[in-house]
Structure formats: C-alpha cells, structure tokens
Design goal:
1 helix; 80 residues; globular; 28% strand; two-stranded parallel ribbon; two-stranded antiparallel sheet
Length: 80
C-alpha cells in the first residue's frame, strides 16, 4: 500500500495525520503488510517501492490513484 503524505505543509492537503491523508476505508485491504509513504505524485520517486517489488518477484503492477488538481481517476500499468 502506498500513502501520499505532503512534505510541504503550505500546500494544505495530504498533511500527516489529517483526514485528507487517510487511506479511504473503501480501498483499504483486509491485511496491510507494508505501507510506503510517498511525497510526490510518482510513487517510485524517492521511495523504496521498486526495490520492494523486485525483491518480491513482482513484474507487473497496477497503480490506481486520484490527482486532485485534475479531479479524475487514473490507472496505469507498469512493467518492471
């Protein structure tokens, strides 16, 4: 699971321990083994996501998220 937390409090959204940063219960898995915190739209930038995926033999992932400023949902398939 990846959680976006704002590194810049002046942005006013996705602040640590705020409702906007909470993972919505409708997409919360039954069991969460790892939570990777990201500070940028790109989940791979300055995180250990790629290492974690490679170490676990994952070769295909589907990333689903919402970009507030675009106000739409996006889905991307990535191949490692």
């Amino acid at each position: 699971m990846i959680q976006h937390i704002s590194a810049d409090p002046s942005l006013g959204v996705f602040l640590p321990e705020s409702e906007g940063a909470d993972i919505h219960e409708s997409v919360l898995p039954k069991e969460v083994k790892t939570v990777i915190v990201k500070n940028f739209p790109n989940s791979f930038l300055k995180t250990y996501l790629e290492i974690k995926l490679r170490d676990n033999g994952v070769t295909k992932v589907i990333v689903i998220g919402m970009m507030c400023r675009q106000n739409r949902f996006t889905t991307h398939s990535l191949y490692l």
